[in-house]
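Posting this for the archive.
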Amino acid sequence: VQLQASGGGLVPSGGSLRLSCAASGITLKDYSVGWFRRVPGKQSEGVGCISSKNDNTYYPDLVKGRFIISRVNSENTVYLQMNNLKPEDTAVYYCGQYNGLWFTDIKLANFRSWGQGTQVTVSS
């Protein structure tokens, strides 16, 4: 099983974008799902996760107040709403199953089953 991210694109600084995370063969509401991003030459960064337990969420300081994760169970989809985007948000974004229910941080080692990412480019 792989979770596929989509919805990336080119946006101006200060703009918004909504990414989608879909999976076939599993019901996403039964899993915690996380998002992380990769920039060539830099360490990957977790940008948020949503728990299968009551849908509680966690965001690191670098995106807190700008990014929002939500689920639409009828669509079997998890969304990452990104607002007030900055050029430093430029990256390939991935979603994956996240090992955890209650979050105080986000660890890359807890991600599983991520598939193809989606490119987000924020112009200055």
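The longest strand covers residues 91-98. The chain has a mean pLDDT of 95.
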